[in-house]
Automatic annotation (TrEMBL):
<dbReference type="InterPro" id="IPR004739">
    <property type="entry name" value="GMP_synth_GATase"/>
</dbReference>
<dbReference type="InterPro" id="IPR022955">
    <property type="entry name" value="GMP_synthase"/>
</dbReference>
<comment type="function">
    <text>Catalyzes the synthesis of GMP from XMP.</text>
</comment>
<feature type="binding site">
    <location>
        <begin position="225"/>
        <end position="231"/>
    </location>
    <ligand>
        <name>ATP</name>
    </ligand>
</feature>
<dbReference type="GO" id="GO:0003922">
    <property type="term" value="F:GMP synthase (glutamine-hydrolyzing) activity"/>
</dbReference>
<feature type="active site">
    <location>
        <position position="171"/>
    </location>
</feature>
<keyword id="KW-0547">Nucleotide-binding</keyword>
<protein>
    <recommendedName>
        <fullName>GMP synthase [glutamine-hydrolyzing]</fullName>
        <ecNumber>6.3.5.2</ecNumber>
    </recommendedName>
</protein>
<keyword id="KW-0315">Glutamine amidotransferase</keyword>
<keyword id="KW-0436">Ligase</keyword>
<dbReference type="Pfam" id="PF00117">
    <property type="entry name" value="GATase"/>
</dbReference>
<comment type="pathway">
    <text>Purine metabolism; GMP biosynthesis; GMP from XMP (L-Gln route): step 1/1.</text>
</comment>
<keyword id="KW-0332">GMP biosynthesis</keyword>
<feature type="active site" description="Nucleophile">
    <location>
        <position position="83"/>
    </location>
</feature>
<comment type="subunit">
    <text>Homodimer.</text>
</comment>
<feature type="domain" description="GMPS ATP-PPase">
    <location>
        <begin position="198"/>
        <end position="391"/>
    </location>
</feature>
<dbReference type="InterPro" id="IPR001674">
    <property type="entry name" value="GMP_synth_C"/>
</dbReference>
């Protein structure tokens, strides 16, 4: 795929690299993550527009702490060191890093020295930054100007404009550093001289061109799940090759209220895509009948999905040969699987890696270089329905793992009704974006006593599980306003006859997971 010269974010292994790479993209500059073990020659072969050294272990003097090859700084490529990267840069260029005993963790006051150089010019003399270090740079390397300090870091920012090298002890990528994004942009635009051209429209143009070149006049197939990734991937491919693309939507009957219609009507209306809908809900429900074990449910949904999709693919193949299969693989999947090579990276049931040998497709993965936020922006730029583009993550096995107990049509209807109320009220409160995901879970095998009108009830509890998270690896329970919870609770118990109790899950992850099953 054609992408602009990247800003390489060198990953020192402390989970900051992805965040930095995202912030660079938010500044409309293309970035890629590379491991610190990559030799400098290999980094330079990528013709980087700049290199950013990320945070990492607490001390450059730790046993086995990764070092930076000084050759990196003599190649004429602009380099920005952050936290550990800043110290590693200082050491490599013969500055001084010491155990001062002045550790700093968390919000810290930064004091700008003099004019603040290019990075800190015109910003407040005192500003709050996020620190996380034990050692400190005590003397900047020759040729560098020190532009800021903090109580625990005598040298907290430096730059050498002649060599286009700069660094900061704090973390500009985290939101707690008030002017962090500004400082990062100063490096990218003013120190490194990069133009901010990485925009949705440019990404779309580049991808469309690349897809056309790859696909030619061959036929392409894509499975839509109702989720953002497959919807955007298919829309991009459709923009590139039009009716050479056929989408298949397997309705497994486990989606939430309105979601199947969104795919079948709104999405098709917005894109003009040729869609083959397979209503397989009966088949999935039959296969799931009586099953209560969560992993068993997952296996069954995955297996049935592949069987149904395979059948649909064969029917299309019988009409005319299909060469390519679209997958909505995102950049974090590529990074986490070690860079990947374009072979199927099977993560959820919507991927179709289990297809038999006579149905082998070449993969088209137009989102491989993109983060989720970028995928959403591209979806919006392509005119996809807002509800689809902004949708919270939703698991492949759908509502089957949000009913604790066996699945049947009646239970699904109860859960759908309650879930719809929760979603409506969250949206009405304007809180969709501050919540990562809001599972609503039906405890179908539990009953409790209640009273409604004049009568005793014996209904099911429903669990509200709103969580905040960055990547679903860890999560915290969302502190939703009490009035909102009250409204959801009242509406659910009034409007969904079978529910007589609403509870809120206040467990973080770990120890809880986001889903109950
Ligand atoms: P947990 O429950 O493990 O979920 O904290 C982490 C994230 O993954 C989603 N999830 C799934 N997604 N198939 C999927 O496609 C699954 O079987 C599955 N299980 C959990 C969950 O919604 C959350 O975003």
């Amino acid at each position: 795929m054609t992408t602009p010269p990247p800003v390489l974010v060198v990953d020192f292994g402390a989970q900051y690299a992805q965040l930095i790479a995202r912030r660079v993209r938010e500044a409309h500059v293309y970035s890629e993550i590379v491991p610190h073990s990559m030799p400098v020659a290999e980094m330079l072969a990528k013709r980087p527009a700049a290199i950013i050294l990320s945070g990492g272990p607490s001390s450059v003097y730790e046993d086995g702490a990764p070092q930076v090859d000084p050759a990196l700084f003599g190649a004429g490529v602009p380099v920005f060191g952050i936290c550990y990267g800043f110290q590693a840069m200082a050491v490599a260029l013969q500055g001084e890093v010491s155990h001062t005993g002045l550790r700093e963790f968390g919000g810290t006051q930064l004091s700008v020295t003099g004019e603040g150089g290019v990075l800190l010019r015109d910003l407040p003399e005192e500003q709050s930054v996020w620190m996380s270090h034990g050692d400190s740079v005590t003397a900047a390397p020759a040729g560098f100007t020190v532009t800021a300090g903090s109580p625990g870091a005598p040298v907290a920012a430096f730059e050498d404009l002649d060599r286009r090298l700069a660094g900061v002890q704090f973390h500009p990528e985290v939101a707690h550093t008030v002017h962090g994004q500004h400082i990062l942009k100063r490096f990218l635009y003013d120190v490194a001289g990069i133009e901010p051209t990485w925009t949705s429209n440019n990404i779309i143009d580049e991808q469309v061109e690349a897809i056309r070149a790859r696909v030619g006049n061959k036929r392409v197939l894509c499975a839509l799940s109702g989720g953002v990734d497959s919807a955007v991937a298919a829309a991009l491919v459709h923009k590139a090759v039009g009716d050479q693309l056929t989408c298949v939507f397997v309705d497994h009957g486990l989606l939430r209220a309105g979601e199947a219609e969104q795919v079948e009507k709104d999405y098709v209306a917005a894109t003009g895509i040729t869609l083959k809908v397979v209503d397989a809900s009966r088949r999935f429900l039959d296969a799931l009948a009586g099953v209560t074990d969560p992993e068993q449910k997952r296996k069954i949904v995955g297996r049935e999905f592949i069987r149904v999709f395979e059948q649909a693919a064969r029917e299309l193949e019988a009409e005319d040969h299909v060469e390519f299969l679209v997958q909505g693989t995102l950049y974090p999947d590529v990074v986490e699987s070690g860079g990947g090579t374009g072979t199927a990276n099977i993560k959820s049931h919507h991927n179709v890696g289990g297809l038999p040998d006579d149905l082998k497709f070449q993969l088209v993965e137009p989102l491989r270089t993109l983060f989720k936020d970028e995928v959403r922006q591209i979806g919006a730029a392509l005119g996809l329905p807002e509800e689809m583009v902004m949708r919270h993550p939703f698991p492949g096995p759908g509502l089957s793992i949000r009913i604790i107990g066996a699945i049947n049509e009646e239970r699904l209807a109860i859960l759908r009704a309650a879930d719809l109320i929760a979603r409506e009220e969250l949206t009405a409160a304007g809180l969709d974006r501050s919540v990562w995901q809001f599972p609503v879970v039906l405890l179908a095998d539990v009953r409790s006593v209640g009273v409604q009108g004049d009568g005793r009830t014996y209904g099911h509890p429903i669990v509200l599980r709103p969580v905040s998270s960055d990547d679903a690896m860890t999560a915290d329970w969302s502190r939703l306003p009490h009035e909102l919870i009250a409204k959801i609770s009242t509406r659910i118990t009034n409007e969904v006859r079978e529910i007589n109790r609403v509870v809120v899950d206040v467990t973080s992850k770990p120890p809880g997971t986001i889903e109950w099953e």
